[in-house]
Amino acid sequence: xxxxxxxxxxxxxxxxxxxxxxxxxxxxxxxxxxxxxxxxxxxxxxxxxxxxxxxxxxxxx
Length: 61
Fold this sequence. Notes:
61 residues, mainly alpha, 3 helices, elongated
């Protein structure tokens, strides 16, 4: 994954409560786009499962 990412990147994006309660978990390195990385990770996981488990999914609506 590109950029300075750590294990907090796998957590959900923070809302105001998260930023107030756990700010250290909500601050990503400059240039890191958590939303973009979550999409990348999800697509990589789907590709892995499709390839290795011969998963057949119905089309998304």
